[in-house]
Amino acid sequence: MADTLGCWNIADLRRKARARLPLGVWEYLERGVEDESGMARNREAFDRLTFRPRVLRKVDRVDTCTTLLGSESALPLAIAPTGAAGMMWHRGDLALAKAAAKAGVPFCISSASMMDVEAFARIDGIRWFQLYMWENRELSFDVVRRAQAIGCEALFVTLDLPVPPNREYLWRNGFGMPFQLNGRNLADILAHPRWLASVIGRYMLEGGLPRQANLPEELRQSVVRGAKPGALFKQDDLVWEDIARLRELWPGKLVLKGVLHPGDASQAVEMGADGVVVSNHGARSLDHSVAAIDALPSVVEAVGGRISVLLDSGIRRGSDVVKALALGADGAMVGRATLYGLAAAGEAGVTRALDLLGAEISRTMAMLGLASVEVIDSDALG
């Protein structure tokens, strides 16, 4: 597994990302909410799980391929939707999409991206689209139609942010919306000239700072000016009937993201969803939420194999993915792990992150005596 970045695990990519990014951008990527107990809880839950390997199982050829939401994937994982990728690398969303396509895994476009959904039309590979609902529901329905038009195979509706999360550090460091320069963040930005030139400088040469994409032109505004009335996401009045409307509108796979309660998972089945993502938003929404991996078994039991179940939040190693599969998930979604790669080295960094995770998945499976994804089950756990 060749490496030109000097990175031999996701933690190495994380260190490179931290060195390259200004504090405000780094904190948006790395931190949680309020007292930030949730991120540690996600990791502790993974770390509590142990393996019980089998021997003499012929693992000279390990097959990591699987099917995710009806599409063949080279690994049992997908790149999760992330809204600020364009601030970590110039046109970062495209770098994520290209790396995913080369690796043969799905990429989920974020409706909070700084790029129009149409920008991904020429990217090969499996494309999914993630939706936050705007106050004007017709704007949301319009972007859903646009995602369908470019060939997105699945629609992910994120449900775990009914109200804006309490990320106090963003207001402290000036990187909230709108962005506000102050003495502290200006000095820090100037202390990161590579990022300033390669990200902000390139945007300025192209005509100006990024804007919230996927809105009508009259509602778009740059990140330094905040959102215009009607351009804010609004999900505090979202109910199951809205999901039914999306089910009518969307002909592809419909997935509900941010499900932790088995009752909600059962309701998702009844509403005609094709899948759920067991996720606590990477501990970026409700600080004292249950760890996603702890919530996974009850959700798997509730859906009873009728729909797909993906696991998101806290994944840093390929072994974490194998643990999720052993508890019944069909696959996993990775967010911060690939963003570390993006912030460290762009598309090459994302590729490195996926290579590392893929190698760790394969190695863990071999150590457990498992030659294919389809034979991973709870017997692998101690």
Radius of gyration: 20 Å
Q: Helical stretch count? A: 14
Q: How would a crystallographer describe the biggest sheet?
A: 8 strands, parallel
Give the helix proportion (percent range).
40-55%
How widely separated are the two ends?
30 Å
Within CATH, the superfamily carries the name Aldolase class I
CATH level-two architecture:
Alpha-Beta Barrel
Q: SSE string, helix = H, strand = E?
A: HHHEEEHHEEHEHHHHEHEHEHEH
* Counted beta strands: 10
Class per helix and strand makeup: alpha/beta
Q: In the CATH hierarchy, what is the class?
A: Alpha Beta
Q: Strand percentage, roughly? A: 5-15%
Low-pLDDT residue spans = none
Tally of distinct domains: 1
Averaged pLDDT: 93
Choose one word for the global shape.
Answer: globular
- As for the CATH topology, it is TIM Barrel
The spatial strand order of the largest sheet comes to 3-10-9-8-7-6-5-4
